[in-house]
Amino acid sequence: MVKGTDVDQLVEQFKSLPGGLLPLLHAIKEEFGYVPESSVPSIAKGLNLSRAEVHGVISFYHDFKTEPTGTHIVQICRAEACQAMGSREIESHAKSSLGLEYGETSADGLLTLEPVYCLGNCACSPSIRIDDAIHARVSKNRFDQLMMALQTSDVPVKGAKS
Amino acid sequence: MINIFVPQDTTALALGSDEIASLLTESISSRGLDVKLIRNGSRGMFWLEPLLEIEFEGDRFGFGPITMSDVPSIIDVLEDSHSDLKNIAHPLFLGSVENIEYLAKQQRLTFKRSGLSDPTCINSYQSLSGFKGLTKALSMDSQLIVDELKNSGLRGRGGAAFPAGIKWQTVLDAPGEQKYIVCNADEGDSGTFADRLLMESDPYQLIEGMTIAGLAVGANQGYIYLRSEYPVAHKILNHAIKEAYKAGFLGENIRDSGKDFFLEVRLGAGAYICGEETSLLESLEGKRGMVRTKPPLPAIEGLFGKPTVVNNVLTLGAAATVLEEGSDAYKNFGMGRSRGTLAVQLAGNVKRGGLIELAFGATLREVVETFGEGTFSGRPIRAIQMGGPLGAFLPESQWDTPLDYEAFAALKAMIGHGGVVVFDDTADMAAQARFAMEFCVIESCGKCTPCRIGSTRGVEVIDRIVANEDRDDNLILLHELCDTMELGSLCAMGGMTPFPVQSALTHFEEDFGLNSRRDH
């Protein structure tokens, strides 16, 4: 699934950058959509770290997943400004209408549902993020429309699984 | 040729400004109009976004908030050669944008350029007096630059309010060849978006401020640590940095001064704790974002063990203003020991949310009532959370507090980064207190016990209180737990999570079942 050479190329590219581990992990995530466990030995070797250290960094940050995610990432903002505008309802609506808990991917692989803590769009809450697009003043209806658009869109897949 | 403007900041985009801009472009070309569409930054009046502006006779006239269906009627206005653009009969016409009270009543220093032009256009920045502060700094001795900052009274805008000049002096005085400037752009507090707005609407100001900081302390390398939740800011910053290198405002031998400064953006990875400066430095070094013990201060041993200035986006932006306009002009704004202006971010359940830059000293009530005009839902305001998820919930009796660091500290509250989140009377404050603990569970770095375990126990104890299990004993336990977290945590995450919890308990005890529960 993951070609070792690709990870090695990225490691080569970032290994002499000061503090290069996070940029490297972002690059791997960009390439594969997640950070495969199988990439850990190459990263460790290239950056002269222990595998435990690399694992420790990957597991610390919400952004780095070690399992494939859906084609699209749907994030619901759970922070206070959105709560003040009813995000708890959007949250439960999203979970029940999609039949997913946070961190789960739909059976068809279309989307992964995640929480997020503030998108900086707090004057027009509640907010959600779908891949790199942020949506403001999201009602239950608007959420359904956006999900419908995902079903029918042929948006090029970002960070596609290979 | 008429210039029209449609913003490209996150909020405008989230409200459909890209789709509107495409439709405008299409209509302009199909009707053959002599109109140029410019994608500007936002003015920060988010309740009016997407805000379309038309430039006419040296002034700018606004329409907002517009939707796709308003585009044809606006195109008609542009097409009508007899239009008096100062006085248009259109339901969304706002008149001169500068005269909109929300904007006219502000004292904009840091955000004076926000929304005026294409944020990535370096020529526009220069024509709006950009890089004037840097040009002055290039001819000044390091100590003189630091003296200017000290005299301005500028304090760290990230939340801790530490005097910026003293931080710079410490780094200047620290021995060492290699020093760093790190911009904390990990704006994680809910209800805050001022850093984002500055980076998306006036990114060169941050670049200028960081370069000035580099000249002041003798650092030639800067990093902007940007949260990954800000994809638009990421794109705009990278574009602006590239242009600044091209124009000789970054890199080797800046504007033939013989001085160098290199700058790059590094992305965070979704950890709130990395907004804490030592955790941020660990993350920049490529490690887990674990909080460091202090001392040593980052100013002495910071990034890669070298003397490092870590400043918030707005602090560095203000430094550019201080150098441009002089420290005396800057410190003329404000009250007490809070000098200059505060970027208040009005958010949550509020009718007119947005960025409000004011001299310190206005009261919270003035901000929420005069600018915000009450709640979005139209219901009464019940509580205001000031200063992000670690800030206290303030009941109405405290809204007359002036926006001043010391006045808020006296209430065991904080101004923090300036976020104001409004809740109406349907808010369940026990649920909010529980969330404060839950957030700490999720985002604690785990290094110290009061924060890592205390927050988990906090969630459980609040659940027991609300469920009326041994309520009196559990209340005592919660207070003791809050004391332990406050006094025993390594950083503000564990140390201040008790603030929202205790303020909710003190001022909204009925939500915890301690009195007859309010009837919502």
Keyword list:
heterodimer, A: 162 residues, Glutaredoxin, 2 domains, four-stranded mixed beta sheet, 7 helices, 4 strands, disordered C terminus, B: 520 residues, alpha/beta, Rossmann fold, Ubiquitin-like (UB roll), 4 domains, five-stranded mixed beta sheet, 16 strands
Give an overview in words.
The complex is a heterodimer of chains A (162) and B (520). Chain A is 43% helix and 11% strand. Chain A contains seven helices and four strands. The model of chain A is unreliable at 156-162 (pLDDT under 50). Chain B is an alpha/beta fold and 520 residues long. Helix content of chain B is 40%, strand content 15%. In chain B, helix 6 (132-138) packs parallel to helix 10 and helix 19 runs antiparallel to helix 21 (498-507). The chains are: A alpha+beta (162), B alpha/beta (520). At the A-B interface, helix 2, helix 4, helix 5 and strand 4 of A face helix 1, strand 12, strand 16 and helix 17 of B.
The total strand number of chain A stands at 4
Low-confidence stretches of chain A: 156-162
Radius of gyration of chain B: 24 Å
Percentage of β-strand residues of chain B: 5-15%
List the quaternary state of the chains: heterodimer
Could you please say which CATH topology of the largest domain in chain A applies here?
A: Glutaredoxin
Distance between the termini of chain A: 6 Å
CATH architecture assignment of the largest domain in chain B: 3-Layer(aba) Sandwich
Q: How many strands, which pairing sense, and closed or not: the largest β-sheet of chain B? A: 5 strands, mixed
The helix content of chain A, as a percent range, equals 40-55%
- Strand line-up across the major sheet of chain B: 2-1-3-4-5
Question: Would you tell me the overall average pLDDT of chain B?
Answer: 96
What is the fold named in CATH at topology level of the largest domain in chain B?
Answer: Rossmann fold
- Using the alpha-carbon principal axes, give the shape of chain B: globular
CATH class group of the largest domain in chain B: Alpha Beta
Shape of chain A: elongated
Distance between the termini of chain B: 56 Å
The mean pLDDT of chain A is 92
What is the alpha-carbon Rg of chain A in Å?
A: 17 Å
